[in-house]
Amino acid sequence: MANPVWKNEGFEVTAKSTGSAPLKVRNVVNKALICLFILVISTAYMWTGYYAGKGIILPTIIAMGGGLAGFYVSFRVPEISVVTVPLFMILEGLTVGGVSALVEFFYPGVVLNAVTLTYIAALLLLLMYRFDFLTAGNRFFRIFTLAAGSIIIFYVLKFIMGIFSINILRFISPIGMAICLAIVVVGSINLVSDMEFIREREDMGTRKRAEWTAVLGIMVTVGWVYLEVARLLYMVKRFISGQIREKKKAFSPEKAEPRKTEDRKIDDKIEPDKK
Q1: Domain housing 85
Q2: What's the rounded Cα separation, in Å, for the pair 180 and 9?
């Protein structure tokens, strides 16, 4: 996915030309961690309302409209992005939570896995860059580490929650997990590309004001990864459900081959002898 945020002209303005402080990757990561925390909390808030039986359709529509407006303002007016980007994270989280809860109602066991996988990948990426774990090594190593780590953490989290009888993360078939791994790899490629772009802007000496715009770009990628994972999980679940229905039809009594007339006549002759 070509992230439109990275085309912002603010990334081409250097700190020397404006006499301001330069952009730092560490500062971007710290701010992105805060925004990811806001995103998770607001998503969880909508899920709490869903499980409590509260109406979430209207709040979701309002959050979606507000989120689009917040994104536009953050992108066009970076001077106030320190305020608009966190607000956009709240609205994005409410939108993701509301939409995913509605989809979960019709297709259980799809979107919660997608949300969890997406947030794990984003958190793992930011922590790795925060502690300089992914600064060394080639690009393939970074992508593989992020994708594999996300899947492992997902299963570890599912196992720990299962110990406490918290079974909100549904089982994913081996085929589904293979496809999820492929999508997480694609998402990891985009997330790593985002961080490489930000590092290039740091080396170029981009001004500090662009840090919040960079955070916005990372969060847009997170939203895209979530949509892709959710879409693929839905397709896998639909395919597996179709296969199960076909097997049930194959073994249903209605599909059993009727007995031949000769066989019934022989049975009629044998039955009286038994009596």
Answers
A1: 13-240
A2: 35
